[in-house]
Amino acid sequence: MGPAPGDTPRVSVVLPTYNREATLGAAIATVLDQTVPVHELLVVDDGSTDGTAPLVEAFAAHDPRVRYVSQANSGATAARNRGILEATGDVIAFQDSDDLWRPTFVEKLLPHVGPDTLVFGSHVLHDLDGSRRTVPPRHVVAPGTVLRRGNVASTQTMVADAALLARVRFDPGLRRFQDWDLCLTVLETAGARIVHVPDVVADVRRRADSISAGSAAVRDQAVRAVFRKHRRQFLGDPTALARVLLRGWVRPTIRPAVRDAP
Q1: Do the bridges between strand 66-71 and strand 117-126 make them parallel or antiparallel, or are there none, so unpaired?
Q2: 133 vs 136: CA distance, rounded Å
Q3: pLDDT band at 213 (very low <50, low <70, confident <90, very high)
Q4: Less CB within 10 Å around the terminal CB: N or C of the chain?
Q5: pLDDT digit string (tens) for 160-169?
Q6: How many CB atoms lie within 10 A of CB 229?
Q7: What's the predicted TM-score (pTM) here?
Q8: What contacts 99, CB < 8 A, 6 or more positions away?
Q9: How would you write the chain as a 3-class SS string?
Q10: Are 171 and 77 in contact (CB under 8 A)?
Q11: Would you give the end-to-end CA distance of the chain in angstroms?
Q12: What is the dihedral of CA 101, 17, 211, 153, to 10 degrees?
């Protein structure tokens, strides 16, 4: 059941984690310290073997909005889907265990969430070399076109109508680009829409062991899987088609030759 007319929608936040005790506390704190308070925070522990459980339980002891959900190790995507199933809010947002929300995350994004709507904000990407950049760097006025041509919507910047996420889920078969795949699936869902809010709402910190910093082979396979799932969208947009073919087929072909060149 959604909120009554005039009421503020209840925001459930899903935060998957696996052995991130060192960074998890800061990520949780940024969710709880919002200018517009969240309804609940579900920390889905994906089989951690460190001190994750007592850390989350300590937060829960001081703030009843925190819920600890434990599952056998199944991957971050399965953890997000578990959180969606457990959530009781009208809208669902996502945080990652090593990233930080800005204090106005909910304040900036929530007003744009409507029925069957997914909203994403911009984020600052802090890279391994110490550089930083804003993604996307400007207002995305045509999310469908831009998202077909590149992955500019990061999971930890998303808020979506809970009813939409009851119909559309993250694909656990993908090891990369689950956020991109989710957005493309929303674009294929009747009556659904995506909105970009051009405000920085999160700081995303790329680490050496981050999924986004993983092997090129995994990345290439994921690009090809996304293309196969959404080929109709790509075939209808020549620029998007050229880009996905370059990323998924051309670059993997020439990469060994460039690496092995004298």
Answers
A1: unpaired
A2: 9
A3: very low
A4: C
A5: 999 999 999 9
A6: 17
A7: 0.93
A8: 27, 156, 202, 203, 204, 205
A9: CCCCCCCCCCEEEEEEECCCHHHHHHHHHHHHCCCCCCCEEEEEEECCCCCHHHHHHHHHHHCCCEEEEEECCCCHHHHHHHHHHHCCCCEEEECCCCCEECCCHHHHHHHHCCCCEEEEEEEEEECCCCCEEEECCCCCCCHHHHHHHCCCCCHHHEEEEHHHHCCCCCCCCCCCCHHHHHHHHHHCCCCCEEEEEEEEEEEEECCCCCHHHCCHHHHHHHHHHHHHHCHHHHHCCHHHHHHHHHHHHHHHHHHHHHHHCC
A10: yes
A11: 64
A12: -40
195 in Cβ contact with 112 (< 8 Å): yes
* Total residues found in the chain within this entry: 262
For residue 88 the two structure tokens come to 């009781």
Residue pair 97/155 in contact (Cβ under 8 Å)? The answer is no
